[in-house]
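Service request form, structural biology core

Requester: graduate student, group of Dr. S.
Request type: structure prediction, single chain
Budget code: on file
Notes: please return the result as structure tokens.

Sequence provided:
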Amino acid sequence: MTDLTQFDKIDLHLIRVLHTVLTERNVSRAAVRLGMHQPAVSAALKRLRDYAGDPLLVRSGSGMVPTVAGLRMVEPAANILRDAQRLFSDAREFSPSNSRAVFRIAASDYLDPQFLPRLVQEVKEQAPLSEIEIHPLNAATDYQQQLARGDVDVVVGNWLTPPLDLHLGKLFSDEVVCLVANKHPALRRGWDEAAWLEADHIAPTATHPGARGVIDEHLTNLGLRRHIVARCPHFGLIPGMVASTLLVLTTGRQYCERFVDQLPVQIVPCPVQFPPLVYYQLWHERSHTSASSRWLRERIKSVAATLKNKP
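Core staff response, request fulfilled:
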């Protein structure tokens, strides 16, 4: 068909009539399948014949058969109907067992060293054909822009004040404590706020442009500043650095507890009062109603729930 004005007049309902008439090879039976009156089907068939410049269905003996042009239309019409159904059903429904979705998660390993491995395990167990991309959070990337562009589906982390322009789901909260080596003087002498501030601290690098981290953001609000002598973008390596030095790591108790039995380190209370660390998953409005994105967020929530107080 070369006349685009005619093409614009063809809607999905007309394609359904075309496919049903050609497969039933009978206008009356097609009307029953379509739930239409026979005159309405006949009128639709007349329009289709006009658009195609071909009779599409002709009499043969006591029945009707598709023309050559009509036969060529059966499969394309079926494909159009299947694609249209998939187009909208994918937005409402998600079948993990046969999905080939690509899930993109921006996260650091500071929530819990077991979080990302368990999340990947659960996703692959339930959606074996899917793909998973773990994106880093660092000072060179703007996670809000990544979410807005669709570069990532979900961002997992902690914020003293989460951004107001994104959807969020709370995963859990945790107490702020300190992790130190077994040889650290604080274990023998204890410490107060001044001693803690003057100690040598190690901290993760920024997770997005302009970020200071929840610990230092809260200290700034109190008019305090700690002595940071080391920074590391790989949070999972920091406990090992603490174990062999006099560096102090201040973070959530749950994270620290994972290393007490693995390294020569201990957990000590922090002399500065901090609000609980609250971990969230954030997502953009663009993926809020997506069935596959909702499924991913449920997996994140489920895995985070299994981590709390679990050995």
